[in-house]
Amino acid sequence: MLGRTDSRSRLLVLLLVFVVAAVAVVGRLAYWQVLKRDDLTTQAVAQTTKEVSEPSRRGDIYDRSGTVVLATTVERDRLVADAKVLTPEQREATGDELVRILTLGDTDAAALRDKLLTGKTYIILAREIEPAVADQIRAAIADRRLTGISLEAEPLRVYPQAGGGRDSTLAAQLLGFVNREGTGQYGVEQAYQDTLGGSPRVADFQRDARGQPIPETATVVSPGTAGQDVRLTIDAGLQLAVEQELLAAYVADDAKSVSAIVMDPYTGEVYAEATYPSYDANDYRAIAAKDPQRFIDPIVSSNYEPGSVFKMMTAAAALQHKSVTLDTRIKDTGTLQLDGGHAHIDDADRTGMGWMTFQDGVAFSRNVVAAKVALDLAPSTRASSAILYDTWLKLGFGTKTGIDLANEASGIVRDPGLKPWAQIDLANGAFGQGVAVTPIQLATAYAALMNGGSMVQPHVVKAIGEREIVDPPKAKVIDQHLSSQLIGLMNHVVTTVPFYKNRTLVKGYDVGGKTGTAQIWDPKANHGHGAWKVDLFNYSFVGYIGRQKGVPDLVVAVRIEEGTPTVVRVGHLEMPVMSFELFRRIATDAITTPDLLTDRMTTIGPVAAR
Questions:
Q1: Residue 603 scores a pLDDT above 50
Q2: Residues 80 and 152 sit within 8 Å (Cβ to Cβ)
Q3: DSSP 221-259
Q4: Over the stretch 523-536, which tens digit does the pLDDT of each residue have?
Protein backbone atom coordinates (compact mmCIF):
# COMPACT_ATOMS: atom_id res chain seq x y z
CA MET A 1 0.00 0.00 0.00
CA LEU A 2 1.33 3.40 -1.00
CA GLY A 3 2.06 5.93 1.68
CA ARG A 4 0.34 9.33 1.89
CA THR A 5 1.62 11.98 -0.52
CA ASP A 6 0.40 15.04 1.37
CA SER A 7 2.21 16.65 4.20
CA ARG A 8 1.78 19.72 6.30
CA SER A 9 5.07 21.23 5.20
CA ARG A 10 4.25 20.81 1.52
CA LEU A 11 0.89 22.56 2.02
CA LEU A 12 2.59 25.43 3.79
CA VAL A 13 5.04 25.85 0.93
CA LEU A 14 2.24 25.81 -1.61
CA LEU A 15 0.27 28.33 0.41
CA LEU A 16 3.30 30.56 0.63
CA VAL A 17 3.76 30.40 -3.13
CA PHE A 18 0.13 31.48 -3.68
CA VAL A 19 0.48 34.28 -1.14
CA VAL A 20 3.65 35.59 -2.82
CA ALA A 21 2.03 35.38 -6.26
CA ALA A 22 -1.08 37.18 -5.00
CA VAL A 23 1.01 39.92 -3.41
CA ALA A 24 2.98 40.28 -6.65
CA VAL A 25 -0.21 40.55 -8.69
CA VAL A 26 -1.76 43.03 -6.28
CA GLY A 27 1.48 45.01 -6.22
CA ARG A 28 1.69 45.04 -9.97
CA LEU A 29 -1.92 46.14 -10.23
CA ALA A 30 -1.26 48.87 -7.69
CA TYR A 31 1.78 49.94 -9.71
CA TRP A 32 -0.22 50.33 -12.92
CA GLN A 33 -3.43 51.62 -11.38
CA VAL A 34 -1.97 54.00 -8.83
CA LEU A 35 1.64 54.89 -9.62
CA LYS A 36 1.32 54.77 -13.44
CA ARG A 37 -2.28 55.94 -13.60
CA ASP A 38 -1.49 59.37 -15.05
CA ASP A 39 0.89 57.94 -17.66
CA LEU A 40 -1.64 55.34 -18.76
CA THR A 41 -4.39 57.94 -18.93
CA THR A 42 -2.20 60.19 -21.06
CA GLN A 43 -1.34 57.34 -23.41
CA ALA A 44 -4.97 56.29 -23.69
CA VAL A 45 -6.06 59.83 -24.49
CA ALA A 46 -3.27 60.15 -27.04
CA GLN A 47 -4.41 56.97 -28.76
CA THR A 48 -7.99 58.13 -29.02
CA THR A 49 -7.40 61.86 -29.51
CA LYS A 50 -6.63 63.63 -32.77
CA GLU A 51 -5.25 67.15 -32.95
CA VAL A 52 -6.75 69.06 -35.87
CA SER A 53 -5.30 72.31 -37.16
CA GLU A 54 -7.65 74.50 -39.18
CA PRO A 55 -6.02 77.41 -41.04
CA SER A 56 -7.54 80.82 -40.55
CA ARG A 57 -8.97 82.56 -43.57
CA ARG A 58 -6.07 84.16 -45.41
CA GLY A 59 -6.13 87.92 -45.79
CA ASP A 60 -6.91 89.47 -49.17
CA ILE A 61 -4.46 91.54 -51.21
CA TYR A 62 -5.65 94.80 -52.80
CA ASP A 63 -4.10 97.41 -55.05
CA ARG A 64 -3.33 100.88 -53.70
CA SER A 65 -6.94 102.03 -54.10
CA GLY A 66 -8.20 99.32 -51.76
CA THR A 67 -10.92 98.42 -54.27
CA VAL A 68 -9.22 96.10 -56.77
CA VAL A 69 -8.75 92.58 -55.37
CA LEU A 70 -5.48 91.06 -56.52
CA ALA A 71 -5.65 87.90 -54.38
CA THR A 72 -8.43 86.37 -52.30
CA THR A 73 -9.53 83.04 -50.84
CA VAL A 74 -12.63 81.05 -51.76
CA GLU A 75 -14.03 77.84 -50.32
CA ARG A 76 -13.92 74.73 -52.46
CA ASP A 77 -14.51 71.07 -51.63
CA ARG A 78 -12.19 68.09 -51.70
CA LEU A 79 -13.57 64.62 -52.27
CA VAL A 80 -12.51 61.95 -49.76
CA ALA A 81 -13.31 58.27 -49.41
CA ASP A 82 -13.21 55.52 -46.79
CA ALA A 83 -12.38 52.61 -49.07
CA LYS A 84 -12.18 50.18 -46.16
CA VAL A 85 -15.97 50.13 -45.70
CA LEU A 86 -16.67 49.43 -49.36
CA THR A 87 -17.42 45.99 -50.76
CA PRO A 88 -15.93 45.14 -54.17
CA GLU A 89 -19.32 45.80 -55.77
CA GLN A 90 -19.64 49.17 -54.01
CA ARG A 91 -16.13 50.18 -55.07
CA GLU A 92 -16.99 49.49 -58.69
CA ALA A 93 -20.33 51.29 -58.55
CA THR A 94 -18.87 54.27 -56.65
CA GLY A 95 -15.97 54.52 -59.08
CA ASP A 96 -18.29 54.50 -62.11
CA GLU A 97 -20.52 57.19 -60.63
CA LEU A 98 -17.57 59.45 -59.71
CA VAL A 99 -16.02 59.09 -63.16
CA ARG A 100 -19.33 60.20 -64.65
CA ILE A 101 -19.85 63.18 -62.31
CA LEU A 102 -16.25 64.36 -62.51
CA THR A 103 -16.13 63.71 -66.30
CA LEU A 104 -12.73 62.02 -66.01
CA GLY A 105 -10.67 60.78 -68.92
CA ASP A 106 -9.32 57.24 -69.09
CA THR A 107 -6.05 57.98 -67.25
CA ASP A 108 -7.66 59.92 -64.40
CA ALA A 109 -10.49 57.41 -64.14
CA ALA A 110 -8.01 54.55 -63.76
CA ALA A 111 -6.11 56.48 -61.09
CA LEU A 112 -9.32 57.09 -59.09
CA ARG A 113 -10.32 53.41 -59.22
CA ASP A 114 -6.81 52.40 -58.11
CA LYS A 115 -7.16 54.62 -55.04
CA LEU A 116 -10.44 52.97 -54.12
CA LEU A 117 -8.80 49.55 -54.35
CA THR A 118 -6.22 50.42 -51.67
CA GLY A 119 -8.75 49.84 -48.90
CA LYS A 120 -7.45 52.79 -46.89
CA THR A 121 -9.71 54.59 -44.44
CA TYR A 122 -8.90 58.08 -45.72
CA ILE A 123 -8.17 58.81 -49.37
CA ILE A 124 -8.28 62.18 -51.14
CA LEU A 125 -9.81 61.51 -54.54
CA ALA A 126 -10.11 65.05 -55.92
CA ARG A 127 -9.48 68.66 -54.90
CA GLU A 128 -10.83 72.09 -55.74
CA ILE A 129 -14.22 70.79 -56.82
CA GLU A 130 -16.44 73.48 -58.30
CA PRO A 131 -19.71 74.18 -56.42
CA ALA A 132 -21.96 72.80 -59.18
CA VAL A 133 -20.05 69.51 -59.25
CA ALA A 134 -20.01 69.35 -55.45
CA ASP A 135 -23.82 69.66 -55.49
CA GLN A 136 -24.05 66.66 -57.84
CA ILE A 137 -21.88 64.63 -55.48
CA ARG A 138 -24.01 65.56 -52.47
CA ALA A 139 -27.12 64.51 -54.36
CA ALA A 140 -25.52 61.18 -55.27
CA ILE A 141 -24.55 60.60 -51.62
CA ALA A 142 -28.12 61.36 -50.52
CA ASP A 143 -29.48 58.94 -53.13
CA ARG A 144 -26.95 56.31 -52.02
CA ARG A 145 -25.46 56.14 -55.48
CA LEU A 146 -22.18 56.93 -53.73
CA THR A 147 -21.03 54.99 -50.67
CA GLY A 148 -18.11 55.74 -48.35
CA ILE A 149 -17.71 59.18 -49.93
CA SER A 150 -17.76 62.63 -48.31
CA LEU A 151 -16.90 66.22 -49.10
CA GLU A 152 -14.62 68.40 -46.97
CA ALA A 153 -14.27 72.16 -47.25
CA GLU A 154 -10.81 73.51 -48.09
CA PRO A 155 -9.59 77.05 -48.86
CA LEU A 156 -8.39 77.91 -52.35
CA ARG A 157 -6.29 80.98 -53.14
CA VAL A 158 -7.39 82.69 -56.32
CA TYR A 159 -6.03 85.60 -58.34
CA PRO A 160 -9.02 87.15 -60.12
CA GLN A 161 -7.34 89.82 -62.27
CA ALA A 162 -6.14 88.88 -65.75
CA GLY A 163 -2.59 89.89 -66.60
CA GLY A 164 -1.30 91.85 -69.56
CA GLY A 165 -0.21 88.75 -71.43
CA ARG A 166 -1.80 85.48 -72.40
CA ASP A 167 -2.17 82.86 -69.67
CA SER A 168 -1.12 85.24 -66.91
CA THR A 169 -2.64 86.88 -63.86
CA LEU A 170 -1.97 90.47 -62.87
CA ALA A 171 1.33 91.03 -61.02
CA ALA A 172 1.91 87.27 -60.74
CA GLN A 173 5.65 87.42 -60.04
CA LEU A 174 5.22 90.25 -57.57
CA LEU A 175 2.39 88.51 -55.70
CA GLY A 176 3.62 84.89 -55.76
CA PHE A 177 1.12 82.15 -54.91
CA VAL A 178 -0.09 79.94 -52.02
CA ASN A 179 0.49 76.18 -52.07
CA ARG A 180 -1.96 73.53 -50.90
CA GLU A 181 -0.48 73.60 -47.41
CA GLY A 182 -1.49 77.26 -47.13
CA THR A 183 2.06 78.60 -47.32
CA GLY A 184 2.95 81.60 -49.46
CA GLN A 185 5.57 81.04 -52.12
CA TYR A 186 7.53 83.91 -53.71
CA GLY A 187 6.67 87.59 -53.77
CA VAL A 188 4.25 89.23 -51.36
CA GLU A 189 2.58 85.93 -50.43
CA GLN A 190 5.86 84.59 -49.03
CA ALA A 191 7.23 87.84 -47.58
CA TYR A 192 3.97 88.50 -45.68
CA GLN A 193 3.08 84.87 -44.89
CA ASP A 194 2.57 85.44 -41.15
CA THR A 195 0.54 88.60 -41.72
CA LEU A 196 -1.71 87.19 -44.44
CA GLY A 197 -1.99 83.67 -43.05
CA GLY A 198 -2.57 84.48 -39.39
CA SER A 199 -2.34 81.48 -37.08
CA PRO A 200 -4.44 78.29 -37.27
CA ARG A 201 -7.21 77.22 -34.89
CA VAL A 202 -6.03 74.07 -33.10
CA ALA A 203 -8.45 71.67 -31.36
CA ASP A 204 -8.27 68.16 -29.90
CA PHE A 205 -10.95 65.66 -30.93
CA GLN A 206 -11.77 62.13 -29.80
CA ARG A 207 -11.57 59.75 -32.75
CA ASP A 208 -14.18 57.30 -33.92
CA ALA A 209 -13.52 53.71 -35.03
CA ARG A 210 -12.36 54.93 -38.42
CA GLY A 211 -9.92 57.34 -36.85
CA GLN A 212 -11.97 60.40 -37.80
CA PRO A 213 -12.54 63.27 -35.31
CA ILE A 214 -15.89 63.42 -33.49
CA PRO A 215 -17.06 67.08 -33.69
CA GLU A 216 -18.93 66.97 -30.36
CA THR A 217 -15.71 66.14 -28.46
CA ALA A 218 -13.72 69.19 -29.58
CA THR A 219 -11.44 70.88 -27.05
CA VAL A 220 -9.91 74.12 -28.32
CA VAL A 221 -6.14 74.28 -27.80
CA SER A 222 -5.61 77.58 -29.61
CA PRO A 223 -8.35 79.80 -31.07
CA GLY A 224 -6.05 81.08 -33.84
CA THR A 225 -5.88 84.55 -35.32
CA ALA A 226 -7.36 85.72 -38.60
CA GLY A 227 -5.10 86.73 -41.47
CA GLN A 228 -4.95 90.46 -42.18
CA ASP A 229 -5.71 92.14 -45.48
CA VAL A 230 -2.82 93.85 -47.24
CA ARG A 231 -3.05 96.92 -49.48
CA LEU A 232 -0.22 97.36 -51.96
CA THR A 233 1.39 100.45 -53.43
CA ILE A 234 0.67 99.00 -56.87
CA ASP A 235 -1.83 100.76 -59.13
CA ALA A 236 -3.78 97.99 -60.87
CA GLY A 237 -4.47 100.05 -64.00
CA LEU A 238 -0.83 101.05 -64.44
CA GLN A 239 0.31 97.51 -63.67
CA LEU A 240 -1.86 96.17 -66.48
CA ALA A 241 -0.63 98.83 -68.91
CA VAL A 242 3.01 98.06 -68.05
CA GLU A 243 2.47 94.34 -68.55
CA GLN A 244 0.95 95.01 -71.97
CA GLU A 245 3.91 97.19 -72.94
CA LEU A 246 6.33 94.47 -71.87
CA LEU A 247 4.50 91.85 -73.90
CA ALA A 248 4.68 94.05 -77.01
CA ALA A 249 8.42 94.64 -76.58
CA TYR A 250 9.03 90.96 -75.83
CA VAL A 251 7.42 89.92 -79.10
CA ALA A 252 8.90 92.73 -81.21
CA ASP A 253 12.46 92.26 -79.92
CA ASP A 254 12.35 88.45 -79.80
CA ALA A 255 13.72 88.78 -76.27
CA LYS A 256 14.28 86.22 -73.54
CA SER A 257 12.43 88.47 -71.08
CA VAL A 258 11.48 92.11 -70.59
CA SER A 259 11.16 93.78 -67.16
CA ALA A 260 10.16 97.19 -65.85
CA ILE A 261 9.56 98.98 -62.57
CA VAL A 262 7.87 102.33 -61.87
CA MET A 263 8.68 103.85 -58.50
CA ASP A 264 8.16 107.06 -56.53
CA PRO A 265 11.72 108.42 -56.09
CA TYR A 266 10.79 110.25 -52.90
CA THR A 267 9.02 107.51 -50.93
CA GLY A 268 10.15 104.26 -52.57
CA GLU A 269 6.54 103.23 -53.30
CA VAL A 270 6.47 100.84 -56.24
CA TYR A 271 3.57 101.75 -58.53
CA ALA A 272 4.10 98.94 -61.04
CA GLU A 273 6.57 96.09 -61.36
CA ALA A 274 6.46 93.31 -63.93
CA THR A 275 8.31 90.91 -66.19
CA TYR A 276 7.20 89.08 -69.29
CA PRO A 277 6.95 86.08 -69.66
CA SER A 278 4.75 85.84 -66.58
CA TYR A 279 2.39 83.07 -65.46
CA ASP A 280 -1.11 82.24 -64.24
CA ALA A 281 -0.92 82.03 -60.45
CA ASN A 282 -4.23 80.12 -60.44
CA ASP A 283 -2.46 77.30 -62.27
CA TYR A 284 0.91 77.42 -60.52
CA ARG A 285 1.20 73.62 -60.36
CA ALA A 286 1.31 73.38 -64.14
CA ILE A 287 4.06 76.01 -64.24
CA ALA A 288 5.98 74.19 -61.51
CA ALA A 289 5.92 71.04 -63.62
CA LYS A 290 7.22 72.59 -66.84
CA ASP A 291 8.94 75.93 -66.13
CA PRO A 292 9.50 76.72 -62.42
CA GLN A 293 11.98 79.47 -63.34
CA ARG A 294 8.93 81.52 -64.27
CA PHE A 295 8.20 82.03 -60.57
CA ILE A 296 11.41 84.03 -60.05
CA ASP A 297 10.94 87.80 -60.14
CA PRO A 298 13.90 89.22 -62.13
CA ILE A 299 13.28 92.72 -60.77
CA VAL A 300 14.48 91.67 -57.32
CA SER A 301 16.10 88.26 -57.80
CA SER A 302 18.21 88.34 -60.98
CA ASN A 303 21.71 89.83 -61.17
CA TYR A 304 23.03 91.12 -64.48
CA GLU A 305 25.75 93.38 -65.85
CA PRO A 306 24.02 96.73 -66.38
CA GLY A 307 26.34 98.37 -68.89
CA SER A 308 26.39 102.12 -69.45
CA VAL A 309 23.54 103.01 -67.08
CA PHE A 310 26.35 102.77 -64.53
CA LYS A 311 28.07 105.81 -66.06
CA MET A 312 25.76 107.91 -63.92
CA MET A 313 27.41 106.40 -60.82
CA THR A 314 30.81 107.37 -62.23
CA ALA A 315 29.48 110.85 -62.85
CA ALA A 316 28.16 111.06 -59.28
CA ALA A 317 31.57 110.03 -57.89
CA ALA A 318 33.53 112.45 -60.09
CA LEU A 319 31.26 115.46 -59.56
CA GLN A 320 31.07 114.77 -55.81
CA HIS A 321 34.89 114.73 -55.55
CA LYS A 322 35.20 117.66 -57.97
CA SER A 323 37.72 115.84 -60.15
CA VAL A 324 35.70 117.06 -63.16
CA THR A 325 32.84 119.40 -63.94
CA LEU A 326 30.12 118.84 -66.51
CA ASP A 327 32.03 121.12 -68.88
CA THR A 328 35.49 119.58 -68.38
CA ARG A 329 36.88 118.68 -71.81
CA ILE A 330 38.14 115.13 -72.24
CA LYS A 331 39.60 113.55 -75.37
CA ASP A 332 37.76 110.48 -76.61
CA THR A 333 40.32 108.34 -78.42
CA GLY A 334 38.10 105.36 -79.25
CA THR A 335 40.53 102.94 -77.56
CA LEU A 336 42.40 103.25 -74.27
CA GLN A 337 45.46 101.16 -73.43
CA LEU A 338 45.69 100.10 -69.79
CA ASP A 339 47.99 98.25 -67.41
CA GLY A 340 51.13 98.91 -69.42
CA GLY A 341 49.56 97.80 -72.69
CA HIS A 342 48.38 94.43 -71.34
CA ALA A 343 44.72 95.45 -71.49
CA HIS A 344 42.50 97.93 -73.27
CA ILE A 345 38.91 99.14 -73.48
CA ASP A 346 37.06 100.43 -76.54
CA ASP A 347 34.14 102.63 -77.36
CA ALA A 348 31.26 100.71 -78.90
CA ASP A 349 32.17 102.00 -82.38
CA ARG A 350 35.92 101.83 -81.73
CA THR A 351 36.17 105.35 -83.18
CA GLY A 352 37.22 108.38 -81.19
CA MET A 353 35.06 111.51 -81.21
CA GLY A 354 37.92 113.77 -80.14
CA TRP A 355 37.68 116.48 -77.52
CA MET A 356 34.28 116.76 -75.85
CA THR A 357 32.76 117.91 -72.58
CA PHE A 358 32.24 115.35 -69.85
CA GLN A 359 28.45 115.72 -70.12
CA ASP A 360 28.65 115.01 -73.86
CA GLY A 361 30.83 112.00 -73.12
CA VAL A 362 28.05 110.64 -70.91
CA ALA A 363 25.36 111.60 -73.42
CA PHE A 364 27.10 109.81 -76.29
CA SER A 365 28.00 106.97 -73.90
CA ARG A 366 31.74 107.03 -74.55
CA ASN A 367 33.47 104.25 -72.63
CA VAL A 368 36.87 105.89 -72.98
CA VAL A 369 35.58 109.12 -71.42
CA ALA A 370 34.02 107.27 -68.48
CA ALA A 371 37.20 105.22 -67.96
CA LYS A 372 39.46 108.28 -68.01
CA VAL A 373 37.23 110.04 -65.48
CA ALA A 374 37.28 106.99 -63.19
CA LEU A 375 41.06 106.64 -63.43
CA ASP A 376 41.47 110.33 -62.55
CA LEU A 377 39.25 110.30 -59.47
CA ALA A 378 42.44 110.29 -57.38
CA PRO A 379 46.23 110.24 -57.96
CA SER A 380 46.45 106.43 -57.92
CA THR A 381 44.45 103.50 -59.26
CA ARG A 382 44.05 102.17 -55.74
CA ALA A 383 42.64 105.46 -54.42
CA SER A 384 40.40 105.94 -57.48
CA SER A 385 39.08 102.40 -57.09
CA ALA A 386 38.24 103.06 -53.43
CA ILE A 387 36.28 106.22 -54.36
CA LEU A 388 34.22 104.54 -57.07
CA TYR A 389 33.56 101.47 -54.93
CA ASP A 390 32.52 103.67 -52.00
CA THR A 391 30.06 105.49 -54.29
CA TRP A 392 28.56 102.16 -55.35
CA LEU A 393 28.11 101.11 -51.73
CA LYS A 394 26.49 104.41 -50.76
CA LEU A 395 24.04 104.00 -53.60
CA GLY A 396 23.10 100.50 -52.42
CA PHE A 397 24.96 98.21 -54.79
CA GLY A 398 26.27 94.96 -53.36
CA THR A 399 23.57 94.86 -50.67
CA LYS A 400 19.86 94.16 -50.64
CA THR A 401 17.57 97.17 -50.89
CA GLY A 402 15.29 95.62 -48.27
CA ILE A 403 12.25 95.64 -50.53
CA ASP A 404 9.42 93.67 -48.92
CA LEU A 405 9.43 90.84 -51.45
CA ALA A 406 10.82 87.33 -51.07
CA ASN A 407 14.16 86.15 -52.45
CA GLU A 408 15.89 89.47 -53.09
CA ALA A 409 19.42 89.18 -54.49
CA SER A 410 22.33 91.34 -53.31
CA GLY A 411 24.11 91.91 -56.58
CA ILE A 412 27.86 91.34 -57.00
CA VAL A 413 30.55 93.97 -56.56
CA ARG A 414 34.21 93.26 -55.83
CA ASP A 415 35.86 95.11 -52.97
CA PRO A 416 39.19 96.63 -54.12
CA GLY A 417 40.27 96.63 -50.49
CA LEU A 418 40.29 92.83 -50.47
CA LYS A 419 41.85 92.38 -53.89
CA PRO A 420 43.23 95.52 -55.55
CA TRP A 421 41.72 96.46 -58.88
CA ALA A 422 43.90 96.74 -61.94
CA GLN A 423 43.33 99.67 -64.27
CA ILE A 424 41.16 97.45 -66.48
CA ASP A 425 38.91 96.61 -63.51
CA LEU A 426 38.41 100.27 -62.69
CA ALA A 427 37.81 101.18 -66.31
CA ASN A 428 35.28 98.40 -66.84
CA GLY A 429 33.46 99.31 -63.65
CA ALA A 430 33.16 102.91 -64.85
CA PHE A 431 30.77 101.79 -67.59
CA GLY A 432 29.00 98.92 -65.84
CA GLN A 433 31.04 95.84 -66.69
CA GLY A 434 32.48 93.47 -64.10
CA VAL A 435 29.64 94.32 -61.72
CA ALA A 436 26.20 92.71 -61.35
CA VAL A 437 23.05 94.42 -60.09
CA THR A 438 19.28 93.96 -59.95
CA PRO A 439 16.74 96.31 -61.57
CA ILE A 440 15.41 97.29 -58.14
CA GLN A 441 18.93 98.35 -57.09
CA LEU A 442 19.23 100.49 -60.21
CA ALA A 443 15.85 102.13 -59.65
CA THR A 444 16.69 102.84 -56.00
CA ALA A 445 20.11 104.28 -56.80
CA TYR A 446 18.72 106.53 -59.54
CA ALA A 447 15.99 107.66 -57.14
CA ALA A 448 18.72 108.94 -54.82
CA LEU A 449 20.45 110.72 -57.70
CA MET A 450 17.26 112.59 -58.57
CA ASN A 451 15.40 113.13 -55.27
CA GLY A 452 17.89 115.42 -53.60
CA GLY A 453 20.34 112.72 -52.54
CA SER A 454 18.46 110.42 -50.14
CA MET A 455 18.31 106.62 -50.26
CA VAL A 456 14.70 105.50 -50.11
CA GLN A 457 13.38 102.13 -48.98
CA PRO A 458 11.57 100.54 -51.92
CA HIS A 459 8.39 98.80 -50.83
CA VAL A 460 5.22 97.30 -52.29
CA VAL A 461 2.94 97.23 -49.22
CA LYS A 462 1.15 100.45 -48.34
CA ALA A 463 -1.06 99.26 -45.46
CA ILE A 464 -1.74 96.19 -43.33
CA GLY A 465 -5.37 96.15 -42.31
CA GLU A 466 -6.15 99.74 -41.40
CA ARG A 467 -2.56 100.52 -40.43
CA GLU A 468 -0.60 102.59 -42.94
CA ILE A 469 3.07 101.68 -43.35
CA VAL A 470 5.36 104.51 -42.26
CA ASP A 471 8.31 105.19 -44.55
CA PRO A 472 11.60 104.49 -42.75
CA PRO A 473 14.20 107.25 -42.29
CA LYS A 474 16.25 108.09 -45.39
CA ALA A 475 20.04 108.21 -45.44
CA LYS A 476 21.61 111.20 -47.21
CA VAL A 477 24.23 109.98 -49.71
CA ILE A 478 24.79 113.00 -51.97
CA ASP A 479 24.03 116.69 -51.56
CA GLN A 480 21.15 118.64 -53.07
CA HIS A 481 23.30 120.58 -55.53
CA LEU A 482 24.86 117.42 -56.94
CA SER A 483 21.40 115.88 -57.33
CA SER A 484 20.33 118.90 -59.40
CA GLN A 485 23.44 118.52 -61.55
CA LEU A 486 22.72 114.85 -62.17
CA ILE A 487 19.11 115.58 -63.12
CA GLY A 488 20.41 118.09 -65.63
CA LEU A 489 22.93 115.55 -66.93
CA MET A 490 20.20 112.93 -67.44
CA ASN A 491 18.13 115.47 -69.33
CA HIS A 492 21.19 116.41 -71.40
CA VAL A 493 21.56 112.77 -72.46
CA VAL A 494 18.11 112.50 -74.02
CA THR A 495 18.01 116.00 -75.52
CA THR A 496 21.52 115.99 -77.05
CA VAL A 497 21.69 112.66 -78.87
CA PRO A 498 19.19 112.56 -81.78
CA PHE A 499 19.03 108.75 -81.65
CA TYR A 500 17.61 108.99 -78.11
CA LYS A 501 15.73 112.26 -78.44
CA ASN A 502 13.32 111.15 -81.15
CA ARG A 503 12.08 108.14 -79.16
CA THR A 504 12.52 109.15 -75.52
CA LEU A 505 11.04 112.60 -74.95
CA VAL A 506 7.40 112.96 -73.91
CA LYS A 507 5.70 116.14 -75.10
CA GLY A 508 4.72 118.40 -72.23
CA TYR A 509 6.91 116.64 -69.64
CA ASP A 510 10.51 116.82 -68.43
CA VAL A 511 12.46 113.63 -69.15
CA GLY A 512 15.97 112.36 -68.47
CA GLY A 513 17.86 109.12 -68.15
CA LYS A 514 20.67 106.90 -69.35
CA THR A 515 20.89 103.87 -71.60
CA GLY A 516 22.96 100.75 -71.12
CA THR A 517 23.92 97.92 -73.47
CA ALA A 518 25.91 95.03 -72.07
CA GLN A 519 27.39 91.89 -73.55
CA ILE A 520 26.29 88.57 -72.05
CA TRP A 521 28.80 85.96 -70.96
CA ASP A 522 27.91 82.35 -71.66
CA PRO A 523 30.00 80.06 -69.40
CA LYS A 524 28.88 76.95 -71.31
CA ALA A 525 30.12 78.17 -74.69
CA ASN A 526 33.47 77.29 -76.25
CA HIS A 527 33.47 73.76 -74.82
CA GLY A 528 32.94 75.03 -71.29
CA HIS A 529 35.60 77.72 -71.45
CA GLY A 530 33.00 80.44 -71.91
CA ALA A 531 32.47 83.14 -74.52
CA TRP A 532 30.39 86.24 -75.19
CA LYS A 533 27.01 85.53 -76.76
CA VAL A 534 26.88 86.58 -80.39
CA ASP A 535 24.58 89.51 -81.23
CA LEU A 536 22.60 89.10 -78.00
CA PHE A 537 22.75 91.84 -75.38
CA ASN A 538 21.09 93.16 -72.24
CA TYR A 539 19.51 96.53 -72.94
CA SER A 540 18.66 98.88 -70.06
CA PHE A 541 17.31 102.35 -69.53
CA VAL A 542 16.78 104.12 -66.22
CA GLY A 543 15.32 107.57 -66.12
CA TYR A 544 12.73 109.98 -64.82
CA ILE A 545 9.65 111.83 -66.00
CA GLY A 546 8.31 114.98 -64.35
CA ARG A 547 5.62 117.59 -64.76
CA GLN A 548 8.00 120.45 -63.94
CA LYS A 549 11.45 121.19 -65.29
CA GLY A 550 14.12 119.60 -63.12
CA VAL A 551 11.59 117.97 -60.78
CA PRO A 552 11.29 114.22 -61.38
CA ASP A 553 7.96 112.67 -60.43
CA LEU A 554 8.72 109.05 -61.24
CA VAL A 555 11.74 106.83 -61.79
CA VAL A 556 11.32 104.14 -64.42
CA ALA A 557 13.79 101.30 -65.00
CA VAL A 558 13.51 98.85 -67.90
CA ARG A 559 15.56 95.85 -68.94
CA ILE A 560 15.35 93.89 -72.19
CA GLU A 561 17.15 90.59 -71.63
CA GLU A 562 18.79 89.03 -74.68
CA GLY A 563 17.00 91.20 -77.16
CA THR A 564 17.64 90.31 -80.79
CA PRO A 565 18.85 93.32 -82.81
CA THR A 566 17.60 93.67 -86.38
CA VAL A 567 20.44 96.04 -87.30
CA VAL A 568 23.96 95.10 -86.20
CA ARG A 569 26.81 97.43 -87.08
CA VAL A 570 29.91 98.39 -85.17
CA GLY A 571 28.71 100.87 -82.59
CA HIS A 572 25.08 100.60 -83.63
CA LEU A 573 22.51 98.04 -82.53
CA GLU A 574 18.88 98.55 -83.45
CA MET A 575 15.76 96.69 -82.29
CA PRO A 576 12.10 97.33 -83.11
CA VAL A 577 11.55 98.55 -79.54
CA MET A 578 14.66 100.00 -77.93
CA SER A 579 15.00 100.28 -74.16
CA PHE A 580 14.55 104.06 -74.16
CA GLU A 581 11.45 103.78 -76.36
CA LEU A 582 9.98 101.25 -73.94
CA PHE A 583 10.81 103.72 -71.16
CA ARG A 584 8.88 106.45 -73.00
CA ARG A 585 5.81 104.26 -73.38
CA ILE A 586 5.79 103.19 -69.74
CA ALA A 587 6.63 106.68 -68.45
CA THR A 588 3.73 108.10 -70.47
CA ASP A 589 1.36 105.47 -69.09
CA ALA A 590 2.53 106.26 -65.57
CA ILE A 591 2.47 110.05 -65.65
CA THR A 592 -1.06 110.03 -67.09
CA THR A 593 -2.46 107.49 -64.61
CA PRO A 594 -5.28 109.24 -62.71
CA ASP A 595 -4.73 110.05 -59.03
CA LEU A 596 -1.29 108.43 -58.95
CA LEU A 597 0.78 111.49 -58.14
CA THR A 598 0.49 114.14 -55.46
CA ASP A 599 1.76 117.66 -56.00
CA ARG A 600 5.30 118.42 -55.03
CA MET A 601 6.74 121.80 -54.14
CA THR A 602 10.26 122.88 -55.02
CA THR A 603 12.87 125.07 -53.45
CA ILE A 604 16.36 124.39 -54.81
CA GLY A 605 15.86 121.21 -56.79
CA PRO A 606 13.20 118.59 -56.11
CA VAL A 607 11.75 118.34 -52.64
CA ALA A 608 8.87 116.04 -51.78
CA ALA A 609 5.84 117.64 -50.18
CA ARG A 610 4.33 114.72 -48.35
A1: no
A2: yes
A3: EE--BPPPPEEES--HHHHHHHHHHHHHHHHHHT-SEEE
A4: 888 888 888 888 88
